[in-house]
Inverse folding.
């Protein structure tokens, strides 16, 4: 199998079906369904996300679902999805469909073209935020990016966009070293890949903000910073 698209989902009963159906339709129309699987990883949800994911998997041959009662964080869910994946090119995208399938395809194409990993960016000159983030979110994003650049020497404008793609062998090279499951997960994954000598490219995309984000700046800002500091200290 060529592609596994992982969609981590925590309490996403309101939007997981629309997102998965959008991806399934794109696979049917623009890819070869025999070469693609969509893997929904339900991560400790307390709502009907697991039941919806299971129903979607029953309806479509190239959709699979997996669920755990224990919450494992987005990073844990993504890495579990990669562990279960059958594809040679592994990717993940958020359950809110902020990155639509055609935009994720740009990342898949970059990996097929030889990159070890491709990360979506909302902040490159060619990128477009079709529905922009609120001002304070944009400010926080830029401050976070500056801290990441200073601490980890990563030359990317956007480590946190929720769409990324990888060669399987790139993930296998770093899987045992990635321990973050929360806010620092994306940063650590990119950092470990670069430490392992993998080529990580940044791809501009069209992206739409999700107004239902769970990010709380007054409480999450300090915890995000602390996670980055702990990660850098571990080295």
């Amino acid at each position: 199998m060529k592609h596994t698209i992982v969609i981590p989902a925590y309490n996403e009963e309101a939007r997981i079906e629309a997102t998965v159906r959008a991806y399934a339709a794109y696979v049917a129309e623009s890819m070869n369904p025999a070469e693609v699987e969509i893997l929904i990883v339900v991560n400790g949800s307390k709502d009907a996300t697991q039941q919806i994911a299971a129903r979607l998997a029953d309806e479509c041959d190239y959709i699979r679902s997996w669920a755990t009662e224990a919450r494992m964080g987005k990073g844990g869910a993504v890495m579990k999805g990669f562990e279960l994946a059958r594809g040679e090119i592994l990717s993940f995208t958020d359950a809110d469909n902020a990155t639509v399938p055609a935009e994720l395809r740009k990342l898949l194409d970059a990996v097929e073209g030889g990159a070890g990993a491709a990360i979506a960016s909302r902040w490159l000159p060619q990128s477009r935020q079709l529905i922009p983030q609120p001002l304070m979110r944009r400010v926080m994003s830029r401050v976070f990016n500056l801290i990441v650049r200073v601490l980890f020497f990563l030359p990317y404008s956007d480590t946190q966009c929720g769409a990324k793609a990888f060669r399987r062998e790139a993930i296998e090279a770093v899987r045992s070293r990635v321990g973050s499951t929360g806010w620092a997960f994306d940063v650590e994954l990119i950092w470990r890949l670069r430490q392992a000598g993998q080529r990580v490219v940044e791809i501009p995309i069209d992206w739409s903000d999700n107004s239902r984000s769970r990010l709380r700046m007054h409480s999450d800002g300090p915890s995000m910073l602390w996670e980055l500091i702990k990660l850098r200290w571990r080295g």
Observations:
- The two ends are 35 Å apart (CA to CA).
- The CA atoms of residues 44 and 69 lie 4 Å apart.
- The longest strand covers residues 36-43.
- The chain is about 45% helix and 20% strand.
